[in-house]
């Protein structure tokens, strides 16, 4: 059934490229419009309300979030991120959801009102993909319903976690239990009592000759004896309440063997299935942040009270060029993300790993430049709480490291590309052979060609 929403000249669709619009089904057109209306009318006007309520209790989810989550759920705006090949999915593809996620990114917490925020998106997709029906009943459905929140616990302070084979928290599997000892970083804070479970990756078989089969993933409820939060970790000076980033110690923490996901030694299989979607969801939302920064820059350009040398800021040639660069940078970021989402839909997450890595490397870096330019246009005011710019910049800088630093992703991309080098060498040799034949035909002396004689 065709949607009665007109896409052309509609602000909800104004930045979506034609090739993507052509792929949007009626259900996606309806959801994109709903999300746009939701963020514009419910979230952006409430940003200062959220901050005021958060100041009253840093580690309680503000009341306005609970109110908006009820309304969003009633409007069918929950869990839009879960791709349509899952039976629990609301029905969107990755490409269609990316158009929604960009709009959500305009406000840092807007995705949370729709249960489409990190780490929930990655954790829910993980549980939907790998859990048994009984495990889904215990953990997946309460998370999808918004009854609780969760954390993903992989990074460790004592090893180079960018090489996940180094992860060393000990998991001893005995009889009907798993005993856990070690330290972890970055799982969401226990200070917020809505956070009810960790999805934990640890080393259960350290002597396995295959380093990729040494690790296990399981669920640890937050109230389990022996699990202790040491502190919240600030990120670039922000505490990121009410979710936060905890530092944890596990001391003989015991969980039932039924909490193991998929099976012992299969953590890397699960992690690869989770990290791809988690990385791309971050990048989808970052496009929305970029658009918000760009709009703030435009607002500053025509601010009548700000007239250095008697001219509007937007009348200076340097700022006109700055606006042009920002616009083109954002449009390029969007194409990279949409390509990754479409590749995941057509070929799967594993086949799309290059496009996902490309997004993870390029989008946060480009966004930092866009936000920094907007800050420059606001001057010293751009560094204060007068605008969302400092928090947008800090989040973008954090995402450069979340799910692995740039160098780890570049290494993966470069390593995959190096595998193609032999084929190109062979092709170059064939070019040279044909060139030498042509030299004989035309009576010329062969020269070095592409470094091959």
Structural class designation:
alpha+beta
Rg, rounded, reads 25 Å
Shape category: globular
First-residue to last-residue Cα separation: 63 Å
Q: Quick one: how many beta strands?
A: 7
* Low-pLDDT sequence parts: none
Total domain modules: 4
CATH level-3 fold name of the largest domain: Butyryl-CoA Dehydrogenase, subunit A, domain 3
Q: Specify the oligomeric state.
A: single chain
Q: Major sheet: size, sense and barrel closure?
A: 4 strands, antiparallel
Domain Acyl-CoA dehydrogenase/oxidase C-terminal: 268-415
Family: Belongs to the acyl-CoA dehydrogenase family.
Domain Acyl-CoA dehydrogenase/oxidase N-terminal: 35-147
Cofactor: FAD
What would your notes on this structure say?
One of its GO terms (cellular component) is cytoplasm. InterPro entries: Acyl-CoA_dehydrogenase, Acyl-CoA_Oxase/DH_mid-dom_sf, AcylCo_DH-like_C, AcylCo_DH/oxidase_C, AcylCoA_DH/ox_N, AcylCoA_DH/ox_N_sf, AcylCoA_DH/oxidase_NM_dom_sf. Pfam families: Acyl-CoA_dh_1 (PF00441), Acyl-CoA_dh_N (PF02771). Residues 35-147 form the Acyl-CoA dehydrogenase/oxidase N-terminal domain. The chain has 14 helices and seven strands. With 453 residues, the chain is of the alpha+beta class. It has four domains: 18-144, Butyryl-Coa Dehydrogenase, subunit A, domain 1, CATH 1.10.540.10; 149-261, Butyryl-CoA Dehydrogenase, subunit A, domain 2 (Beta Barrel), CATH 2.40.110; 269-418, Butyryl-CoA Dehydrogenase, subunit A, domain 3 (Up-down Bundle), CATH 1.20.140; 429-453, no CATH class. Strands 2-3-7-6 form a four-stranded antiparallel β-sheet, with no helix packed on it.
